[in-house]
Design a protein that fits this description.
Helix content is 4%, strand content 41%. By secondary structure, it is mainly β. The strands form three sheets. Strands 1, 3, 4, 6, 13, 16, 17, 18 and 20 form a nine-stranded antiparallel sheet that branches. Strands 2, 5, 7, 8, 9, 10, 11, 12 and 19 form a nine-stranded antiparallel sheet that branches.
Length: 372
């Protein structure tokens, strides 16, 4: 069924788009939650275990210079968070000197981390994660565990193939395939929604964080200076993600096709830069707007560190967090280090540009539990 929007909601979306696009750079405090905010997720690890109905633990290798992440490096322990003893999630990193029993890809023991992700997919809203990195006394690992990359991010992905007979043309039988987003050497389109907030520890640097966004094959990589967060204390990381509708002109009903409640471009005459491969919403006969990521704002302990305004995704994704050891993290001359996570909260805003139900798959494992 075509999606119908009231004129008020449509105008409100345009107003949000304009307001966020021109947001002031000197806004440094955590803003109040909008009236539309709904608390949809709250995890404080009180069950004493990772709830498999809410989370899954990755068994995955990606990137170079590491041996992946494994569920064996994820546990629940007790710790003191802001003067209160409580359960916390602990994700362990096994460094270059690790010789214990835990193994990663190809049965290797070194450079193996631990990462978990929500089973649920979330869209526009506020994401709040409490995380501790480092040890003030340096026991067992440096106070700043060089070589490890503690990270919090949203991620979702989908591979959409077309027929081999139509590798460079739109195909109504494969509505998600877009030849403007064709993967080199394959008759497929990659849909990719990711927001990093942040990645710490590139080349052993914990004074800066990587705040990157990915929207299909477009991205914006940014690095922002951080307060001293690798200090063995808990800090609160907030991310504000907003989406909206971008009005499109001269798009007709004959140029799109409906799939899963959204409308997908089927004509190369529509400039890819006007919609970045995102789906459209139908506002009326021959009247469309593109679902669009607007802005991401990032804050640490209530103070803004930076944000993204280009190539922001709009498709719902899974909250992912933990620690891994990519080659670009640098040498990890220690046995183990731990990253601790306290309470996690997510408020959704239900912005009109949100795209749900298109990216739906968990990150699959790519090595077995016990490789030789």
């Amino acid at each position: 069924m075509p999606m119908k929007l009231s004129i008020w909601k449509y105008l409100s979306s345009i107003m949000i788009f304009a307001a966020l696009a021109s947001s002031r750079a000197d806004e440094v405090a955590l803003p109040p939650l909008p009236s539309s905010a709904r608390l949809v997720f709250h995890e404080n690890w009180s069950a004493g275990r990772v709830d498999s109905s809410q989370w899954y633990m990755l068994r995955k290798k990606w990137g170079q210079g590491n041996h992946g992440v494994t569920p064996d490096n994820v546990a629940i322990k007790r710790d003191t968070v802001n003067d209160t003893e409580q359960n916390v999630l602990v994700c362990q990193a096994d460094g270059d000197q690790y010789r214990g029993a835990i193994t990663g890809a190809k049965g290797e023991k070194t450079r193996v981390g631990g990462v978990i992700a929500t089973k649920q997919f979330f869209a526009s809203g506020r994401y709040e994660v409490v995380m501790k990195v480092g040890r003030p006394d340096g026991e067992g690992a440096p106070a700043q565990p060089n070589g490890a990359v503690p990270a919090i991010w949203l991620y979702a992905y989908r591979w959409a193939e077309t027929s081999a007979e139509k590798p460079t043309a739109f195909n109504a039988d494969a509505p998600l395939f877009n030849p403007n987003l064709k993967v080199s050497g394959s008759p497929a389109t990659e849909y990719w929604s990711e927001i990093d907030f942040p990645e710490l520890g590139k080349n052993g640097d914990f004074t800066h964080g990587g705040y990157n966004v990915f929207c299909q094959n477009r991205y914006e990589w940014k690095t922002f200076a951080m307060p001293p967060v690798a200090d063995g204390k808990y800090h609160t990381y907030d991310m504000e993600w907003r989406t909206g509708l971008k009005p499109l002109t001269n798009v007709t009903d004959a140029q799109v096709i409906e799939y899963n409640g959204f409308w997908w471009v089927q004509d190369k005459a529509i400039p890819i830069n006007s919609y970045l491969g995102n789906p459209l919403k139908r506002l009326g006969a021959n009247h469309y707007a593109a679902c669009t990521g607007l802005t991401v704002q990032n804050l640490v302990d209530g103070k803004k560190v930076g944000g993204n305004t280009r190539n922001v995704p709009c498709m719902a994704a899974q909250l992912t967090m933990g620690v891994w050891l990519p080659g670009w993290g640098g040498l990890a001359p220690w046995q183990t280090a731990q990253v601790f996570f306290g309470p996690v909260k997510i408020w959704e805003y239900d912005d009109l540009g949100d795209v749900r139900g298109i990216l739906t798959e968990d990150v699959p494992p790519n090595f077995s539990e016990r490789e030789p």
